[in-house]
């Protein structure tokens, strides 16, 4: 995945001390945005595999009724750590990896604003990940309070709970540093002529996501710090015996947790907004409305948190407010989906793997969105709360949402990252295998939930047996598909095996296809890009009318004089 160390005819005098470090130093002391992006992506994939292993154990236990392999306590540890590791260890770092790789390339910046802080924010992930994974080996086992870490369960857990809290603090610090870096890079380092409204959609979605992260990570830190002081320092924030309130924890947690859901999907929207136009050979339909819709989602995400809490004895006025606010947030989300469909409408579409994953994303994410609307209705939610219907809903938006978009982004940009084309047949196998196995796994869970099967239970009555067996078989197949992806798609690309990628791999013979500054540099992207910033045509309506000559890293300005 790493960029080949190619200095590409640099004749600048100041390049002498810029030569890329080699060996382990290149990675440990990495300050290059491409290397750090690669490290993030590899870390998140390792976490995805471990979180997936926990999911396999969960599905193994639920393959048939009765207790087979694990006791209920260990089962709850598995569900808790599966959630924590997937959310904080897999999805979030993966999107930061995409941001590190693509944001400087898309805005014509030489690197991220704070290169050393970038290195630090990555290396913080390693001890945090080790603490989460290692919690199973601590006295009393891993935390078993659910990934939401609700009191009073968290006040009764063993020492691994403290390790978990520490890990979350470190991950939060990493997220905040990464966000500051992304915001400063996007606001201060865009190429001359790139106004905000000419900026690529992926940069827009990450700019908004970064602001969300800075706003809500401290809220999570507050909630888990109060949990920590309740556990060890005699406070009673969440202990009713001393006048505390466990429901207050839920309010604080979900005030973080609901914007967090959008933190995990907005960068995905950005990726899809690049892939769909590239393979429809058209411009993105309604660019400005996409920017405003993304901003609306971010703002509205702060006023819907208690829809996770309809069953906590909320007054009916509160239920109505959160119900209507949640339905309102479906509107800007729908705007995006209609814009993608309008982009595809009458386009000259081809269906290479990135486009397959993008179309798969739109199809499955829309299903997840509809089940979310159903859960938003308080009277229905009273029946479906904490059933497998909820599990089905959030896996449709997080696995088929975030993960599929990342796969689309990987296949889309990997020729630029590695300089080789992935194997198209294997990519398509990965797509169809993942799509079919995913739906076999999670579609039956809607019916399990409607029939009343609660989540986080290690055992269940006989009437749920058939659907659980189907879901487990689908789950094992889905897990295997990702192992296949790593060994047969990712590794050959990282080793440089495959046909050499052209500079613009997705363009048709007429030159239509993927557009943007990232396609102006050679494949693979050289270690240092845009040392002389590209200059954009001020009369252009978009970035893409500027053409950069990568062999000299100097801009050619189309249709404008150089006086500006």
UniProtKB/TrEMBL annotation:
It is found in: Cell membrane; Membrane. GO terms for cellular component: plasma membrane; respiratory chain complex IV. Pathway: Energy metabolism; oxidative phosphorylation. The chain crosses the membrane at residues 39-60, 80-101, 122-145, 165-189, 201-228, 248-272, 284-308, 320-342, 354-380, 392-414, 430-449, 469-491. It comes from the Bacteria. SUPFAM superfamilies: Cytochrome c oxidase subunit I-like (SSF81442). GO terms for biological process: electron transport coupled proton transport; oxidative phosphorylation; respiratory electron transport chain. Its EC number is 7.1.1.9. Residues 1-20 are annotated as: Disordered. InterPro entries: Cyt_c_oxase-like_su1_dom, Cyt_c_oxase-like_su1_sf, Cyt_C_Oxase_1, Cyt_c_Oxase_su1_BS, Cyt_c_oxase_su1_dom, Cyt_c_oxidase_su1_bac. GO terms for molecular function: cytochrome-c oxidase activity; heme binding; metal ion binding; oxidoreductase activity. Residues 1-19 have a biased composition (Basic and acidic residues). It catalyses: 4 Fe(II)-[cytochrome c] + O2 + 8 H(+)(in) = 4 Fe(III)-[cytochrome c] + 2 H2O + 4 H(+)(out). Residues 18-537 form the Cytochrome oxidase subunit I profile domain. It is an enzyme of class 7 (translocase). Keywords: Cell membrane, Copper, Electron transport, Heme, Iron, Membrane, Metal-binding, Oxidoreductase, Respiratory chain, Translocase, Transmembrane, Transmembrane helix, Transport. It is a multi-pass membrane protein. Its main location: membrane. Pfam families: COX1 (PF00115). Cytochrome c oxidase is the component of the respiratory chain that catalyzes the reduction of oxygen to water. Subunits 1-3 form the functional core of the enzyme complex. CO I is the catalytic subunit of the enzyme. Electrons originating in cytochrome c are transferred via the copper A center of subunit 2 and heme A of subunit 1 to the bimetallic center formed by heme A3 and copper B. Belongs to the heme-copper respiratory oxidase family. This is Cytochrome c oxidase subunit 1. The lineage of its organism: Bacteria, Pseudomonadati, Pseudomonadota, Betaproteobacteria, Burkholderiales.
């Amino acid at each position: 995945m790493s960029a080949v160390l190619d200095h590409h005819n640099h004749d600048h005098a100041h390049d002498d001390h810029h030569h890329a470090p080699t060996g382990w130093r290149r990675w440990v002391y990495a300050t290059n945005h491409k290397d750090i992006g690669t490290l993030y992506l590899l870390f998140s994939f390792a976490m995805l595999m471990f979180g997936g292993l926990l999911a396999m154990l969960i599905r193994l236990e639920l393959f048939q009724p009765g207790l087979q392999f694990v006791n209920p306590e260990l089962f709850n540890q598995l569900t808790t750590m599966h959630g924590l590791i997937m959310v904080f260890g897999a999805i979030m770092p993966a999107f930061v990896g995409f941001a590190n790789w693509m944001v400087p390339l898309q805005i014509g910046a030489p690197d991220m604003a704070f290169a050393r802080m970038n290195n630090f924010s990555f290396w913080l992930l390693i001890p945090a990940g080790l603490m989460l994974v290692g919690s199973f080996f601590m006295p009393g086992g891993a935390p078993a309070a659910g990934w939401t870490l609700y009191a009073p369960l968290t006040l009764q857990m063993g020492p691994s709970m403290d390790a978990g809290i520490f890990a979350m603090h470190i991950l939060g610090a990493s997220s905040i540093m990464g966000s500051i870096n992304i915001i400063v890079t996007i606001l201060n380092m865009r190429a001359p002529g790139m106004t905000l409204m000419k900026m690529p959609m992926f940069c827009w979605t990450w700019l908004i996501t970064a602001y969300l992260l800075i706003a809500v990570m401290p809220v999570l830190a507050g909630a888990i710090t109060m949990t920590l002081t309740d556990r060890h320092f005699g406070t009673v924030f969440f202990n009713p015996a001393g006048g505390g309130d466990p429901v207050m924890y839920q309010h604080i947690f979900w005030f973080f947790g609901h914007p967090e859901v959008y933190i995990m999907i907005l960068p995905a929207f950005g990726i899809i907004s690049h892939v769909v136009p590239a393979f429809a050979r058209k411009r993105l339909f309604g660019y400005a409305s996409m920017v405003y819709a993304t901003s609306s989602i971010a703002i509205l995400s702060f006023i819907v948190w208690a829809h996770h809490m309809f069953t906590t004895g909320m007054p009916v006025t509160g239920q109505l407010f959160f119900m209507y606010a949640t339905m309102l947030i479906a509107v800007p989300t729908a705007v995006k989906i209609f814009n993608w469909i309008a982009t595809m409408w009458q386009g000259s579409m081809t269906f290479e793997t990135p486009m397959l994953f993008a179309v798969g994303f739109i199809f499955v994410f829309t299903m997840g969105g509809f089940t979310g609307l159903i859960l938003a209705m308080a009277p229905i939610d009273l029946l479906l709360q904490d059933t497998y219907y909820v599990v089905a809903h959030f896996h449709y938006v997080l696995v088929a949402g975030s993960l599929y978009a990342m796969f689309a982004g990987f296949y889309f940009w990997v020729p630029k990252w590695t300089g080789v084309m992935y194997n198209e047949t294997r990519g398509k196998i990965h797509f169809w295998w993942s799509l079919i196995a995913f739906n076999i796994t999670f579609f039956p869970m809607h019916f399990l939930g409607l029939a009343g099967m609660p989540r986080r239970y290690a055992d269940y009555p006989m009437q749920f047996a058939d659907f659980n067996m189907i879901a487990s078989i689908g789950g094992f197949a889905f897990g295997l598909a990702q192992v296949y992806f790593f060994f047969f798609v990712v590794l050959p690309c990282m080793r440089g095996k495959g046909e050499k990628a052209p500079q613009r791999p997705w363009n048709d013979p007429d030159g239509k296809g993927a557009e943007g500054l990232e396609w102006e540099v050679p494949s693979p992207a050289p270690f240092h890009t845009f040392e002389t910033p590209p200059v954009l045509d001020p009369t252009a309506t978009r970035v893409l009318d500027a053409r950069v000559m990568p062999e000299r890293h100097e801009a050619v300005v189309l249709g404008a004089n150089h006086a500006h």
